């Protein structure tokens, strides 16, 4: 694995390896001295062409905990706003000696372009490209789910899930699937790990061709909840900034039919977790009480994001620098 661009590229063994390394990282993070020296001397560039709070901070924390130097590059205030191309930006970073590039971009496919165009030699991590993919989000979701399924604390330094997939887990992904890179990456990864996924959305918010995805599709949230005994229900943010048409009648109607309301949250099975990648629109796709309930693992997801991104950076950057030197980092 040279880059992490899509969860569709991950084999089951590679995905489980990353989750297992993330478990190691979570144990290191729980120690008094959180820093590990493994990426000392290497430089990770965070290239964020699109707004982000938790993903950018999470990658920064992950790189710093591995002792890498971090350069944060936000498109606002840079020469990108003067019209500099992705190519010129990449070549500039390469000349400055980036050992790994984390990129978020509004254009679907931008990270693939960066990885394949030959402008830069470093491993590329996709931190969200348009409506396409967000592989580290799916990995942190899978990591959190694996903890929940095995009855472990959803975050913190737990042990004992290593080697396991998500076999037999039933996961609902609900809402704006059409614009969601989180949904796309999760459908690939969760099914690779053995889970069964049901997408629940209004027909207007499902992508063309969803019938060929490896999952079920349902339109009625209450019927789907009655029919399946879900282990987790993942709510998606309604991506208003990507909507250029009316996809549902009103916010109120959306919340009533596809939102995680107080009543739906109360009716879930006792073990069922509520997930959300953040940022949440409280009162819209998820009620405040559901978001704050003990079954919500939203903050665990955020905490686990750091461990998972440490695992990804570790595997990609050490595979590159230590090629042939006997480290086990060849995932
Ligand atoms: C997601 C994203 O940016 O795709 N957020 C995140 O990375 N935590 C989901 C979203 O914005 O809805």
Write a short abstract of this structure.
The chain has 331 residues and is α/β, with parallel strands linked by helices. It has helices spanning 12-29, 54-65, 86-95, 110-116, 135-149, 181-192, 221-227, 251-258, 262-267, 288-292, 298-321, and strands spanning 43-48, 69-74, 100-105, 124-129, 170-174, 196-200, 216-218, 232-235, 273-275. Helix content is 37%, strand content 13%.
Keywords:
alpha/beta, 37% helix, 4-stranded parallel β-sheet, single chain, 5-stranded parallel β-sheet, 2 domains, 11 helices, binds N-carbamoyl-L-aspartate, Rossmann fold, 331 residues, globular
Query: What's the helix-strand series?
Result: HEHEHEHEHEHEEHEHHEHH
| Average of per-residue pLDDT values | 92
Strand arrangement within the widest β-sheet reads 7-6-5-8-9
Uncertain spans, ≥5 residues at pLDDT below 50? Answer: 324-331
Which outline best applies? globular
Q: Report how far the terminal alpha carbons are from each other.
A: 6 Å
Report the sheet-strand fraction: 5-15%
The number of strands is: 9
CATH class of the largest domain: Alpha Beta
